[in-house]
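The protein record minuted underneath.
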Amino acid sequence: MPLFLAACEGRQSALAPAGEDAAQLHLLFLVMLGGAVVLWLALNGAFYVVTRLRPGQMSVRHADRVILFGGVIFPTVLVGALLAWGLSIMPEQRATGDGLVVRVTAEEWWWRVEYWPEGAEAPVITANEIRLPAGVRTELKLNANRYIHSFWVPALGGKMDMIPGRETVLTLRPEIPGLYRGQCAEFCGASHAMMAFETVILEPAAFDDWLA
């Protein structure tokens, strides 16, 4: 158990959320896992009852009830409830940003990062590293050249595809300052392994000083 749990930490783990969006996805995972465990226990419990505790012949009427409630109604209600709850939190993953816009372009094979503060006439441009303020929801505008890529910082939120000729938008609200690893989550070609980047989360004042 300690060996398996050791993989739950780290700067590239979705099981160690460091942002509001990642925390929502982590909760979604735990709830869905719990529902799957309940369904698995109920199904295998039913098999155990009919094969070990009561292996004798069952009346057709009783068997029909078991199939109807255990095989149709219970799974449908459980999965339907999980689906409804999961869809209810999806809008929170598309919240608007608080002002700062970061434009990220996946090149061959590196990341172009442009910071557009409110009112700026020109961007601040860096490469292969993204810096974001903690406690602030930042809007990321994602683009790609030639190949499809996917932007993903597991500790901060979900991934978003980057499609040539189409701009996609992702917002992130980091909570814990630190250094996190991001990567391209879509196989994009021979140098896919090079499509990794560092994500530095700073306190708002420190971020403003760095950007200035």
In short: The first helix runs from residue 2 to 5. The radius of gyration is 23 Å.
